[in-house]
Amino acid sequence: MTEQNVTWLTLREVGEALNVSQREVRSMLRDLRLLATRRTEDGDLMVDSRMLVEKDGAVIPLPSMRGTLTMLKDSGYNDAEAQGWLLREDLELGTTPMQALLDGKTHAVRRVIAGLAF
Fold first, then answer.
1. HEC string of 8-47?
2. What is the pLDDT of residues 60-78, one digit of tens each?
3. How high is the mean pLDDT of the chain?
4. Which residues sit opposite 54 in a β-bridge?
5. pLDDT (tens digit per residue) in 6-23
6. Distance (Å, whole) CA 87 – CA 2
7. Interacting residues of 9 by C-beta distance below 8 A, sequence separation 6+
């Protein structure tokens, strides 16, 4: 999936989907449970809709995001760079890292990130 095919959500929309306040959404961003980047001319922060998944009838942040984003930050990536990396096809994974996370290939994604740090 290319970046053009991503459905982007505003922080308000994320809060509505998760049934939490915008304050809690911003806390999730600080805690690296979600990633938002500026996607509009107005500079609005937006979240890739695939970072929200359904579990037991509730919408939650994709559980593998927190550790993955922490590793990317530790490797020196800023938010925009991390978002770009998640959406870029990776030869080792055979897909984008975001899709690999959605497919449950968390360890493979993190192995690739570990290689980025060197």
1. EEEHHHHHHHHCCCHHHHHHHHHCCCCCEEECCCCCCEEE
2. 999 999 999 999 999 999 9
3. 94
4. 59
5. 999 999 999 999 999 999
6. 7
7. 17, 46, 47, 48, 49, 52
Residues 6+ apart with CB under 8 A from 36: 11, 29, 45, 46, 47, 79
Distances (CA, A) of 13 to 1, 6, 90: 22, 15, 29
Q: Is the separation of the CB atoms in 17 and 24 below 8 Å?
A: no
Judge whether residue 37 has pLDDT over 90.
yes
> Under DSSP, is residue 90 helix (H, G, I), strand (E, B) or coil?
strand
Integer Rg of the chain from CA? 14
* Residues 100, 114: Cα–Cα separation, whole Å: 16
| Predicted local confidence at residue 1, as pLDDT | 47
DSSP state of 2: -
